[in-house]
Amino acid sequence: MTAASPTARVIVTGAGSGIGRATAVRIAAEGGHVVAADLDPARLDDLVGQCGEEAVTALAGDITEPETVRRIVAAAGGRIDGLANVAGIMDGFPPPSEVDDAVWDRVLGINLTATMRLTRAVLPAMIEAGHGSIVNVASEAALRGSAAGPTITGIDGGMRSAYAAGRGGPVMQATMPAPAAPGQVAASIVWLLSDDATNINGVVLPSDGGWSVA
Ligand SMILES: NC(=O)c1ccc[n+]([C@@H]2O[C@H](COP(=O)([O-])OP(=O)(O)OC[C@H]3O[C@@H](n4cnc5c(N)ncnc54)[C@H](O)[C@@H]3O)[C@@H](O)[C@H]2O)c1
Question: Is residue 16 in contact with ligand 1, taking CB distance under 6 Å?
Answer without folding.
Answer: yes
